Amino acid sequence: MAALFSSQTNLSSSLVIHSYPVKLKKFSIRKSVNVAKKVSLFAVLVDNGKMKVPFKLKEGQSRKFHQLPSGLKMEVISQKGLDQKNNNELKNPPLVFIHGSYHAAWCWAEHWLPFFSENGFDCYALSLLAQGESDEPTGPAAGTLETHASDVASFIQKEITAPPVLLGHSFGGLIVQSYLSSVETNKEFSGTANSLPKLAGAILLCSVPPTGNGGLVWRYMRSKPIAAFKVTISLAAKGFATSLSLCKETFFSPELQDHLTRSYQKLMVESSRMPLFDLKKLNASLPVPRVPRSSFELLVLGASNDFIVDSEGLRETAMFYGVEPVCIEGIAHDMMLDCTWDKGAHVILSWLSNRFT
């Protein structure tokens, strides 16, 4: 989401950098939170790794690279779902996670991949081009809404065997919206055969609204000038990279321990080697086309303490798709990393269970 106020082949044949065996055990939210606070986020340097501060994979996770039609490779951190008890015929849909600006696949792998894997879902977190360990394209920006959505479609088409649920956070949510509009209008992307792969559903998390960031910016400038200044310094000027307090205020709750904030800050600094979008070109392409919700389930989820996407932005996105928004109390923009990360995870699990299991 950092760009909000700035201008800014087959898995089986891919290179596996790290792989850990799955450990079958009963999942405990409280235990996992305590363990997460004690486990170091860092590993030894990955051979030829693009991030100077690499992320240490958890048990059961693997890092592979999906080769795009362009020849560039996209990082994928995956974690298979544990077998569902006595329910082999009713398979949960795969979950595909799309990050926002200054993030990469690691942001999902810290808490949510283990959580949803323990609950029987195959999980795949992608690093968009020029983010995380993914390759860089030529040009001043990593891509456009269409090229990012095309990369996601390429991965789903080649590596996923059943219609997945696509989850997008912040600007990743806008990419998911672009994907949805293209699916519903039968638009074809380069590198994908015929129409785009269908989805079982989509979840928009603290997402940029379908009209872009313009409304958010103007509301902040009118009603919260100090907050607008802070967000601009934090994101456009990358102040979050050097100020721990500003990083915490932008992305996390005050209660998140400083050592965790510092660890995430270092990973964010290393995650983005070029902006996700050219914002001028992005805004010219918006809003995303409105689509009927005839063939997919949709959840629009926000956070009450979001410093970046306000409640009006959350409502705008929900109204655009004709659904009721869900706002989680006591959590910040990076709900998948925040100290109460399990709140959002449980809301999503309940939503998935009611619709797919």
UniProtKB/TrEMBL annotation:
Top-level taxon: Eukaryota
Pfam families: Abhydrolase_6
SUPFAM superfamilies, alphabetized: alpha/beta-Hydrolases
Annotated ranges, domain AB hydrolase-1: 95-338
Annotated GO biological process: lipid homeostasis; phosphatidic acid biosynthetic process
InterPro entries assigned to the protein according to its UniProt record, in alphabetical order: AB_hydrolase_1 (IPR000073), AB_hydrolase_fold (IPR029058)
GO molecular function terms noted in the UniProt entry: carboxylic ester hydrolase activity; lysophosphatidic acid acyltransferase activity
PANTHER family: ALPHA_BETA-HYDROLASES SUPERFAMILY PROTEIN (PTHR42886:SF42), RE40534P-RELATED (PTHR42886)
Name this polypeptide is given: AB hydrolase-1 domain-containing protein
Organism: Papaver somniferum (Opium poppy)
